[in-house]
Amino acid sequence: MKTYFYRCLTLFCLISTTTLLTSCTIGRFAYYNFANITDHKIFPSRTAKADSVKFHYAVSKNPRAPKKLTIRNKETSFDDYLKGSNTVAFIIIKNDSIQYEKYFNGYNEESVVASFSMAKSVTSILIGCALDDGLIKSTDEPMVNYIPELNHDGLEKVTIKDLLDMKSGIHFNESYVNPFGDAATYYYGRNLRRSMYNRKMAHAPGGDFEYSSGDTQLLGFVLERALKGKTITSYLEEKLWKPLGMEYDATWSLDKEKDGLEKTFCCINARARDFAKIGRLYLNNGKWNGKQIVSSQWVKESTTSIPGSEGYTNQWWLNSDGSYLAKGILGQYIYVNPAKNLIIVRLGKNHGNTDWDGLFDSLAANY
């Protein structure tokens, strides 16, 4: 009888502990450990539907795919290098034709991969669309025009442009290994709105660039309010996913199931080919097959470096040669090089001990 009792008690404790771990932010951080490209499976989400009319890249008849690399004086095939660097998808598109497309480590063209911070660049595109639609008047507006709850203690001085360039001056702990940090709260928490209401100023806005996922989430809050009842995901579907002829539906992870808010600092879940189309849109100055999707002025502003920006403007990473990138923490990239008419998408389980920026530059030099 005692044995049965202790077994029941052990089972009860195990169930209770598991429930506790998966029902609070710190518990979920411990339970799931660290971010993974399969995290789209653990969060609630909304779906952006693809249109019935699909856009398919042509496949080059004479592909100029890299054959080999020399790394640390050792020659290796490009395929083997990518596989060994925990890459799951790699696409090179030159002059609107696929030069190279390979999938690794059990992934294929239909595999869903979490975008992580590449979503920041997509959020920026939607802000540009909202400006075009007159839903947002100007990036010079204070964010409190849309989030009046933050009209206090210096937060009222932060403009939408400050958020876009990550110069808000709002305190945010970006650590991804600290379960008590803001990044963990935003990623695993279940009330983003409440978390944003608790933001405090660290210093005056408009100063130096400080990478902050909190700024992008506030942009998402501004966008949600500007949309007046329409969800951010439905706006993504309307403005990008259907007009760009995406091949597959996408999802955007939420903080909670009921009345959830999109995690605009991360968490668009899609396929490699469709991520490449985001690059194509900007490569063509916001135009898609003759139709202006987002203004060319917004694309120019987002991809032109300004003094003091540290190579970061409107949620895009900028290089001195005119190329630019959307980046995710585990080595997700959309690389665009207008001078070469080149797009590269790399998705991976992690960075794989590789300087991807340097590799993209090297590949671009040979195209």
Automatic annotation (TrEMBL):
Query: Which EC number(s) does UniProt give?
Result: 3.-.-.-
Annotated signal sequence is 1-22
* Domain Beta-lactamase-related as annotated: residue spans: 84-347
The organism's superkingdom is given as Bacteria
The beginning of the lineage is: Bacteria, Pseudomonadati, Bacteroidota, Flavobacteriia, Flavobacteriales
Q: Which SUPFAM superfamilies match?
A: beta-lactamase/transpeptidase-like
Q: Which keywords accompany this UniProt record?
A: Hydrolase, Signal
Give one Pfam family, short name only: Beta-lactamase
Q: Does the keyword Hydrolase apply?
A: yes
Q: What class of enzyme is it?
A: hydrolase
Record protein name field: Serine hydrolase
Q: Which GO terms describe its molecular function?
A: hydrolase activity
Matching InterPro entries: Beta-lactam-related, Beta-lactam/transpept-like, Diverse_Enzym_Activities
